Here is the input.
Amino acid sequence: MLNFRKKSKLGIVLCLLMALTLLVGCSGSNETSDKAEAPAEKQEVIKLGFLGAKTGDVANYGIPGEKGMKMAIDELNAGDGIMGKKVEGVYEDNKGDTGEIANIATKYITRDKVVAMVGDPCTGLTKVAAEIAQENKTVIFSAGATGTGVVEIGDYVFRNTLLDQFAVPSVVDWMVNSMGWKNIAVITSLNNGYSTALTPVFKEALKTQNTKIVIEESINDGESDFSAQITKLKKANADVLVFTGYYREAALIMNEAQKQGLAISLIGGDGLYGQDLIKLGKTAVEEKVIYYCGFSSDQASAETSKFINKYEEIYKEKPDMFSAQYYDAVMILAKAMTDAKSTDPSIFKAELAKLKDYPGVSGNTTFRADREPVKSPICLITVKDGNFVVLEKIPVNIK
Here is the structure.
């Protein structure tokens, strides 16, 4: 009897263990199923992943970009969302770091199950995330990357900002033929991929206008002493300085120029578009720094004015090109999904590529056959009385 009871108890224990194993196995199977890629149409919420820096050296791009993205999502959700589904943004901080953006892009795709990622404004960071997006067949829509070699990564990669290769020739034409600047100084930031890519574009355009580069200097992002470069610049008798880096270094360069009594204008790309240019540069940048971009809150169109008023009501500040381009990116993605009647990136990317004359708040956007955006005109922006204002609007000739 004792032996039978021992066997019975052993049998019960074994049965319980088997049942527990089956239960755990079923639970594991369900978890795997939940994490596996579900068809986008079956998802209850459409998720979009934010790519941008909210801290660090390029946070002046990501912070307003996040605001523009949130505003667009809120507007969609105040209506029917996208095809009756609510839209949800997922917002991580990539800190302007390539390792961070790689991890975030991977998380968005594998864990959060986003159908698209919006951002980053920086070309180098966009390329890192775009490789991951293309490999995983997820749309990435950069709201600012202007350098080369972005959409070439693949057919899931898009952007909605005018390329430097199209904008710079028009800017250089203005410099030479409107301003009479023919003796040019060039400063490049060697540890900044945006700057090292933009400098050759400027140099090629300057060559076609028969200008003379009288001095070429280099710096590194993060440096703060530019006295040696400005001392050399004073001796070169340049008419204008082309600086292809970001706003922080531009402000410090102009501070040093002011300190040494050098009255010279600085021309650059939209990497100079950041409130810290004004905060750090103060009087040294007033009506001396000029950069090109595709958006300005000054001299706005009717559609842009509506966006600006709503943005100011919500955030108590003026929007910039990054908030406008993130906003447009979300709305363009929503249009593509609606037109395709699908939230599956492999389906709606085809509709995205067909975009023609979209009346966005950052300007009308059309995608060429190579998915590159066409925008015209571009704005030349300067600083006046502590604010960014339009100096002039110039046409862009794109073949």
Observations:
- The chain has two domains: 46-161+299-367, 165-293+381-394.
- The CA atoms of residues 68 and 323 lie 4 Å apart.
- The chain has twelve helices and 15 strands.
- The radius of gyration is 26 Å.
